[in-house]
Design brief:
324 residues; 9 helices
Amino acid sequence: MENTTPAQPYVIGLDMGGTNSVFGIVDQRGNIIAQTAISTKAYPDINDYVAAAVQALQPIIEEVGGIGKIKAMGIGAPNGNYYNGTIEYASNLVWEGVVPIGKLFAEALGIPCRVTNDANAAALGEMTYGVARGMKNFIMITLGTGVGSGIVVDGKVVYGCDGFAGELGHSIYDRSAEARQCGCGRKGCLETYASATGVARTARLMLEKSTAPSPLRDLDPEKITSYDVFLAAEQGDQLAKDIFEYTGTILGKACANYALFSSPEAFVFFGGLTKAGHYIMDPIKRAYDEEILNIYKGKAKIFVSSLKGSEAAVLGASALGWED
């Protein structure tokens, strides 16, 4: 029987987060054959970052037979521009301005490299391998260092005229004088409330305004994380539960607005904050149902990603590598 294995059976997918970058070598069936990771924020010079990434990749590239077995690389990054192969003015990364990340990796590895927004990559991964399989209209919301989103309409990721469509994390939630400052330069953006860092900010504010007992008071306020809030909620702490209730309600109301422009089949939530489970998902669903316009009631399902860890983003980024 003739061997039909392609000469280049693998692609590299990179999920670039504000804190860490996860690389995976992926086959055509969506199996992640090997993985490695480096710190994103440890390299303020982009050239040092690329050099460190290539060094980390070398062992797993050799593991699959060398660079000759790799067809291409796909990158999911904050403010990644699909059209230009660049990262542009990303507020959660250490590099400023426009970074030609696709060109730098293509030159360093000697293979084609394509770029998209990190949340768009997660949406591609979910649509191909996860709970959104078979769906042609859904919105992916990623809850990490910031809040990202990938919008799929009629089976295609929406990029808009410039590659930046769907920055829902920077829609304005709060226009009051007390609105929180966002890294993007504006105030009151959704991600300042609904990201993992937003949850930590909410925790500090609630601790200041309340005298209620809480295990969170035993921690340095500046070092509190969303995971600390989750652990407190698991211990039955009402203040921690209130923090998630506040956050989930904001997210649910935001999604009720987002449904207006694409009437999605589902909202899929992905990222570290979803590990809070029912503490955050229940208020999301409740607020969404209360706020949604009547004609959309009961149509969109609300899911948590079925893909573990960074798999959705790695697989989604890798899907770019198969494009001709």
